[in-house]
Amino acid sequence: AQSVAQPEDQVNVAEGNPLTVKCTYSVSGNPYLFWYVQYPNRGLQFLLKYITGDNLVKGSYGFEAEFNKSQTSFHLKKPSALVSDSALYFCAVRDPSRRNTGFQKLVFGTGTRLLVSP
Amino acid sequence: EAQVTQNPRYLITVTGKKLTVTCSQNMNHEYMSWYRQDPGLGLRQIYYSMNVEVTDKGDVPEGYKVSRKEKRNFPLILESPSPNQTSLYFCATRTSLGGTDTQYFGPGTRLTVL
Question: Is A10 on the interface with B (CB under 8 A)?
Fold first, then answer.
């Protein structure tokens, strides 16, 4: 079964410093990986995704993520954090090997709260 | 503007009183689903629909019903709500059954069952 782990409940970083939010996954085949962000009282917003190709994926708001197949990781990064980046971040995985079941479910991690201090 | 709308956004109700949370999308997406979000558990899928009149259970379907009579609407029905259904609910859509496309989420419905 596919699964996602976000080992940190919260990440604290000072504004201007680089940030990393960790994600590891487990699927039977090659994964499709996603990051979503949730601001207070809002729904989830898509940040970026990895399907194939370049291991470094660039997304919205200056975020990027690096796919590492050997470590089964897809960590979210940003070179310089902003206070406005403070939010709840979700990593998600879809297992494309399940396409014959008629749909492909998106499995989410438990979320990591990012707190950027001024 | 492409959007997914949910109503109501907030609801406080009592045990056993039937309720419906509506979800509507204007993107002509085939695939729609419902999730609940609980602290420490992330998002868990309740039900999904691959097209009109095609629905199936997700990971936590107990106590919920859905229907898909029109492509744009996918209501979530709680026939007899219980306190363990207190949660934050999200409707989501995506273009097709393909694995690479992005999922779009509604703003959420915060439900409290007393």
Answer: no
